[in-house]
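I'm stuck. Please check this protein.
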Amino acid sequence: MEAILTGVARDTRGKNNARRLRKAGQVPATVYGGEVQGVQSIAVDPKELLKIVRSESGLNTLIELKVEGKSSDRVLIKEFQVDPIHSDLLHVDFFRLAMDKAITVTVPIALRGEAAGVKQQEGLLDFVTRDVQIECMPAEIPERIEVDVEALLIGDGVRLGDLVEGVSWTPVSDSDTLLVHVIPPKVEEEEETEEAAAEGAETPEGEGGETEAAKGSSEGEDQAKN
């Protein structure tokens, strides 16, 4: 997904200037990276920025950043700070991209369908890894990596390396990373545990139906009386 965001250059820095910007309905931001040296200080509309952050592609949204009086850049949100009490944006860092160079991003895993091992065998779907790192060109960042789980039976699973055929990205995370698998139901295990606990709770009886502990206690009482 791509988005357009406009900003204005700012010449002053510091906490006081940042507070004034926020009161004026802007959020301070910096732009760095790419072939441009140094850091560019700007201010952007927090409402427009939050729309991007909360979109399906989130932090992986390719943004065309247009700053007044400057040429536009393609950027990604590298980091942002949020007020812990009011949830207001406090500051944003943008990373300037070179569109002809691959980058590393973290992409969420999304499951599609209902596993046969769950529907037919009463197994449990275990979603092990929910995001992975991949390398791709900036214009080809996927919003998510979808995994079709419909054919999975108990004991079956999908690893990252199973998904690399015909895609425009290469894995940075280990290709052997397990993403999802179907495991047996836990009912039998729980029943076995309960049975074992019940057997362990039974106390062996001594001669005459008395336990050894009770027998020893009775003998002690008789000696005391004598």
